Amino acid sequence: MRILPFTIILLIVTACGISTTKPTAFEEARRLMHSDPASALSKLNDVDVSELEDSATIAQWALLYSEALAVNRMSTPNDTIINIAIDYYRRHNHTDELRKASRLKALSQSSDETDALATALYLQKEKEFFLYKERTKRELYMFCGCVILLIAAGIIVWMRQRMKLQSLQNEALIAEASGLKSRIDASRGDVGRLETKLRQLLDNRFTLIDSLCQTYYESQGTKTERKAIVDKVKSEIESVRTDSFDKMEQTINDCYDNILVKVKENYPGIKKEDYQLLLYLTCRLSTRTISLLLGESVGVIYKRKSRLKFRLKESVEMLCPDIMTFF
User: Fold this and answer.
1) Where do the H-state alpha helices sit in 18-115?
2) Could you give the CA distance from residue 48 to residue 186 in angstroms, rounded to a whole number?
3) pTM: predicted TM-score of the whole model, two decimal places
4) Where do the domains of the chain lie?
5) Which of 49, 112, 200, 206 sits in a 20 to 30 Å window from 253, CA-based?
6) Dihedral through CA 54, CA 58, CA 59, CA 61, nearest 10?
């Protein structure tokens, strides 16, 4: 970024160096061309061709200088200067100036009079022209270099902005990955709790099976076998109905992201009996099992399930859509 101000200053200096101010000496020489041709030629000799600003000014000077030589009846050692004007006006299709330059070239070739001083000045002007060409070439290289520097600076700025944007994107991805890791860690914690709850449920189930088997073994071969088993089952059912309700509720909330808490928050008017039915439904108990736990017939449980589903659909489905999957 620090190179940009220097590049802009360099371009300004270059632009000032190639400005197109027309020398006032040309007008003075043109005015004196026929009244005082020697003074006109002197004026044109005083012009430093190497310091002229553009090819149009050079061509104008070359045409006036050749005209002054012709008016003063002086021959030229070569056609270099008049050819400057001819080449320029031919390229730019300036018919009148081209015709005049061609006529002056013919006059310079037909003149036999030579002047050592005029020849030396002519060669000096020719040398100044070559210096002008070298200067314009340097300025062209300088201008191209400035353009290249500007392009390079633009590319660097663009790449830095792109790298900055990429860095921001990477930071966003890292933040997203960090958030995902946190969610995964939280999910692992939930899974761990779920595994613990499942292990507890399995332990309770195995304990129940073991207890029933023990009762069956002790009662085997007696008349009270069936009655003892039935009494044991009824006892376990009553235990689930009374003692295990809170544990089942906590297990469901842990495993399903506090789904029962959300139902209570969004449907505070739910009846106690309907909440018990909902709890057993979320535990994936069968309709027959629920009927035993609630002490109602299977038909009544079906009807209550239908009514409860309708109420929850109206009140909490939009906020807790997962609840409908248990029906």
Assistant:
1) 24-32, 37-46, 55-71, 80-91, 95-110
2) 86
3) 0.46
4) 3-153, 245-327
5) 206
6) 140
